[in-house]
Backbone:
């Protein structure tokens, strides 16, 4: 969805004409329980084609291989063809427990951002998937940070009023 009614909140190239009240009302059209069901929340800004660098990105075939390897690891871990997004929470935590420091970090973010249990579980699942894509056997600290960042990036970059929704 757009970050605001005019679509330019957080943009570097266009001026947003919306008031804070309009932005909050627009953002609140999407309820908190519905937002909790999104795995990743990002604010995508426009990219100028002249500034896009080519050659330094991973190719589609390289990305596909990493995904296939990550899925293979997940299938082996769970003993059947099921991915991190679908496995039960109990199984996820038995096969990929968080360290005490990771648990504390996640709790600090959860308390600061008023995350629901559903959001916390989504962040753990996303961190497990990021670790699988990196080839890590356990959930890494870096993957937890990345998952937290992917869950809260839209709110931070736009500087807009998700807080009015109690989040």
Residues:
């Amino acid at each position: 969805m757009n970050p605001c009614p005019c679509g330019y909140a957080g943009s570097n190239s266009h001026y947003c004409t919306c008031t804070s009240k309009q932005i909050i009302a627009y953002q609140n059209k999407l309820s908190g329980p519905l937002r909790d069901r999104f795995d990743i929340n990002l604010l995508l800004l426009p990219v100028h084609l002249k500034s896009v660098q080519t050659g330094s990105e991973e190719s589609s075939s390289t990305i596909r291989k990493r995904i296939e390897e990550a899925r293979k690891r997940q299938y082996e871990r769970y003993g059947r063809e099921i991915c991190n997004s679908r496995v039960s929470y109990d199984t996820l935590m038995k096969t990929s427990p968080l360290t005490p420091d990771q648990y504390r970090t996640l709790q600090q973010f959860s308390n600061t951002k008023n995350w629901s249990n559903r959001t916390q579980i989504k962040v753990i699942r996303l961190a497990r998937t990021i670790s699988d894509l990196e080839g890590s056997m356990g959930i890494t600290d870096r993957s937890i940070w990345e998952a937290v960042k992917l869950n809260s990036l839209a709110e931070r970059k736009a500087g807009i009023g998700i807080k009015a929704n109690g989040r």
User: Anything to note?
Assistant: Helices lie at 20-27, 32-35, 60-78, 89-95, 100-113, 117-134, 141-158.
